[in-house]
């Protein structure tokens, strides 16, 4: 197993939420989420809403999952957790970007060649009171 691509233990990925992690693409850090589907498989998507792409679905403690769907809490768009398709809301028909992962020996591994794994959790410090990023 390639430890540099290990995101988390598969057991850490919730069915009723998401697990936030950070990847990089050509040096640019970006966030992604893992979620466990009803059949036990694990899917990964970009953490940004297609409606307003600076809005994060998971702000660090798990995205809202309601009736088995991911919910953007800004304007209430809902996304199918197996496909990432928005089936309701202002970005209906849009699709969350899928990130390729696999489970091997109880670990979730990043298999998407476009990205390098950086860390579990957020890509930077955020001001939790406003949801905006802190300027440095
Ligand atoms: S920002 Fe997600 S629904 Fe508007």
Automatic annotation (TrEMBL):
Pfam families tied to this protein: Rieske
InterPro entries: Rieske_2Fe-2S (IPR017941), Rieske_2Fe-2S_sf (IPR036922)
SUPFAM superfamilies: ISP domain
TM stretches of this protein: none
The UniProt record lists the keyword Cytoplasm: no
Keywords: 2Fe-2S, Dioxygenase, Iron, Iron-sulfur, Metal-binding, Oxidoreductase
All copies of domain Rieske, residue ranges: 5-110
Gene3D superfamilies: Rieske [2Fe-2S] iron-sulphur domain
Protein name: Ferredoxin subunit of nitrite reductase or a ring-hydroxylating dioxygenase
Originating species: Halopelagius longus
């Amino acid at each position: 197993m390639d430890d540099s691509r290990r995101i988390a233990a598969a057991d850490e990925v919730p069915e009723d939420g998401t697990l936030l992690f950070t990847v990089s693409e050509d040096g640019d850090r970006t966030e992604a989420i893992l979620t466990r589907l009803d059949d036990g498989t694990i899917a990964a998507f970009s953490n940004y809403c297609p409606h307003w792409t600076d809005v994060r679905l998971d702000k660090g403690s798990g995205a809202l999952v309601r009736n088995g769907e991911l919910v953007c809490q800004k304007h209430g768009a809902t996304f199918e957790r197996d496909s990432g398709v928005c089936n309701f809301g202002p970005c209906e028909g849009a699709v969350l970007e899928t990130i390729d992962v696999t489970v091997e020996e109880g670990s979730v591994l990043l298999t998407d060649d476009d990205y390098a794994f950086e860390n579990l959790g957020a890509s930077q410090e955020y001001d939790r009171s406003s949801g905006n990023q802190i300027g440095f």
